[in-house]
């Protein structure tokens, strides 16, 4: 019986895909290895949102090939979809399987190995691997403003140094409607807070973003499947579930009878006994009044809103092809804060977008200072091949972009500290994590703050805690007031 290991890079959606790949291998009877060095098959599930993400993937391939030269290295994910030939040319890579074929990765990998084995029978070859060999299409890594061109290609099995030596399984991502779904768990806290991807792909065309061209069109997990996954997690003892997606607020828009994201949230509340639902990033235009009200009135929805901003400059937002203006964004955030005074509010912000002037950056800085953020994810622009922004002539010098990044991070740190200090002397709700340092148990509050409570507490418990101080960027509590049971959940179906 073979062994496998999956290593994920990048966002929660990629981690969720990795969990689904693990499920595929388990269903084929393979055993998970504890480390890559001990596995017969190593899957690298890559990201390509920045140039450094590509570099991280290449470094991992070299490391694993050095540590475990006899293993099959399978590279999948967004980098594999964007630049399959580039990845296939790296020493040690056995197969490149893009997002277009990720839903059958384990079967493809097993079939390729069987095909290459001299021990396999001709009958097995024809019955098991004919659907995968040769590959359907080879996607060129050349793009024209994000428009990927497909060219016919044969399965690559050559020792010619001028061509890749790995097998490539990549086709037009926009022709695919599959969506991998399996809960993903934080390695350090696998007993709490699983993340379930319910949506993939994106129909937006932000000028800086390559993600639509490596993940395809927006597609949603049917509500029945979402409810089934959530109920399975509840049966396994989980008390909080995070739902996520590439463009989560677009959930349900691709159905023949379109549904809004709010309807999925209501179904989870009405048809499961989940104690706490946490919603990950939702674009500004999808924060409807109904969603804000639903979150505000339900104790079973975590008071945590992540609303991508990117820039506070109207000119830059237009150049980014974002679908909102600064005043629209401000209106949404103030509505959220008015409805939920203690809500965590975060955003993604990009600095150094091509053409961003000092005046543009000052508009962003002033807007951030004026709005009730409690944390920020600040990114420096990274040109992605094939996107319109990559060909813009007015690229911002790296030194200036880094200075702007530092400025916004300082503002964000001050806002986060002020938000945390506002809870000193107050009771707050938190779920205990699977971490104990000998004196304190780590926990995460309903409104997304890290907390340490004195003593050892069982993981996956909701507690009401009295905050005593802020220490080293973490809330501290010397005592648990009581267990929290104020969820008013319905009976599970």
How would you describe this structure to a colleague?
- The protein is of the alpha/beta class and 493 residues long.
- The chain folds into three domains: 3-175, Rossmann fold, CATH 3.40.50; 187-421, Alpha-Beta Horseshoe (pyruvate-formate lyase- activating enzyme); 427-483, Nucleic acid-binding proteins (OB fold (Dihydrolipoamide Acetyltransferase, E2P)).
- The protein contains 14 helices and 20 strands.
- The strands form five sheets. A six-stranded parallel sheet has the order 2-1-3-4-5-8, sandwiched between helices. A five-stranded mixed β-barrel has the order 16-17-18-20-19.
- A hairpin with a 2-residue loop joins strand 6 and strand 7.
- The radius of gyration is 24 Å and the shape is globular.
- The two termini are 38 Å apart.
- The model is unreliable at 117-163 and 487-493 (pLDDT under 50).
List strands and helices in order, with pairings:
Layout: E1 3-8, H1 12-27, E2 31-32, E3 41-46, H2 51-67, E4 72-77, H3 78-82, H4 84-88, E5 93-98, H5 105-116, H6 122-128, E6 138-144, E7 147-151, E8 167-169, E9 195-200, H7 211-215, E10 219-220, H8 223-235, E11 240-245, H9 261-271, E12 276-279, H10 289-297, E13 304-306, H11 314-320, H12 326-339, E14 344-351, H13 358-370, E15 375-380, H14 398-421, E16 427-436, E17 440-445, E18 450-454, E19 462-471, E20 474-483
Parallel strand pairs: 1-2, 1-3, 3-4, 4-5, 5-8, 9-11, 11-12, 13-14, 14-15, 18-20
Antiparallel strand pairs: 6-7, 9-10, 16-17, 16-19, 17-18, 19-20
């Amino acid at each position: 019986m073979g062994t496998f290991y999956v290593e994920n890079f990048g966002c929660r959606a990629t981690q969720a895909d990795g969990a689904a790949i693990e499920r595929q291998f388990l269903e084929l009877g393979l055993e998970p290895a504890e480390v890559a060095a001990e596995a017969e098959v190593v899957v690298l599930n890559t990201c390509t949102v920045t140039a450094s993400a590509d570099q991280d993937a290449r470094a991992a391939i070299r490391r694993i090939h050095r540590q475990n030269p006899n293993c099959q290295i399978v590279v999948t994910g967004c980098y594999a979809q964007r630049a399959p030939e580039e990845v296939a040319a790296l020493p040690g890579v056995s197969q490149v399987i893009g997002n277009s074929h990720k839903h059958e990765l384990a079967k493809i990998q097993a079939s390729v190995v069987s095909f290459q084995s001299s021990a396999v029978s001709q009958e097995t070859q024809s019955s098991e691997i004919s659907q995968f060999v040769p590959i359907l299409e080879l996607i060129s890594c050349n793009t024209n403003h994000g428009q990927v061109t497909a060219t016919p290609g044969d399965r690559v099995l050559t020792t010619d140094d001028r061509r890749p030596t790995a097998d490539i399984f990549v086709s037009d991502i926009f022709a695919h409607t599959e969506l991998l779904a399996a809960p993903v768990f934080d390695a350090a806290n696998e007993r709490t807070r699983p993340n379930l991807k319910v949506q993939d792909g994106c129909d937006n065309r932000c000028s800086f973003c390559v993600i639509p061209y490596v993940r395809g069109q927006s597609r949603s997990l049917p509500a029945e499947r979402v409810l089934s996954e959530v109920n399975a997690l509840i049966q396994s003892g989980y008390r909080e579930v995070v739902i996520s997606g590439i463009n989560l607020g677009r959930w349900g828009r691709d159905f023949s009878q379109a549904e809004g994201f709010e309807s999925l949230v209501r179904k989870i509340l009405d048809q499961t006994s989940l104690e706490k639902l946490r919603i990950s990033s939702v674009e500004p235009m999808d924060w409807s009044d109904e969603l804000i009200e639903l979150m505000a009135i339900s104790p079973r929805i975590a008071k945590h809103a992540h609303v991508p901003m990117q820039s506070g400059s109207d000119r830059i937002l237009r150049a980014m092809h974002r679908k909102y203006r600064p005043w629209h964004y401000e209106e949404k955030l103030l509505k959220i804060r008015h409805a939920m005074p203690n809500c965590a509010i975060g955003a993604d912000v990009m600095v150094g977008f091509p053409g961003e002037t000092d005046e543009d950056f000052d508009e962003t800085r002033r807007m951030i200072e004026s709005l009730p953020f409690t944390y920020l994810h600040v990114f420096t622009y990274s040109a992605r091949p094939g996107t319109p922004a990559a060909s813009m002539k007015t690229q911002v010098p790296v030194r200036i972009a880094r200075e702007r990044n530092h400025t916004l991070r300082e503002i964000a740190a001050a806002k986060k500290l002020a938000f945390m200090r506002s809870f000193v002397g107050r009771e707050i709700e938190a779920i205990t994590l699977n971490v104990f340092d000998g004196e304190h148990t780590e926990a995460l509050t309903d409104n997304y703050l890290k907390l340490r409570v004195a003593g050892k507490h069982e993981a996956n418990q909701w507690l009401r805690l009295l905050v005593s101080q802020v220490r080293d960027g973490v809330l501290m509590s010397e005592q648990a007031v009581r267990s929290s049971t104020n969820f008013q959940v319905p009976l599970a179906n």
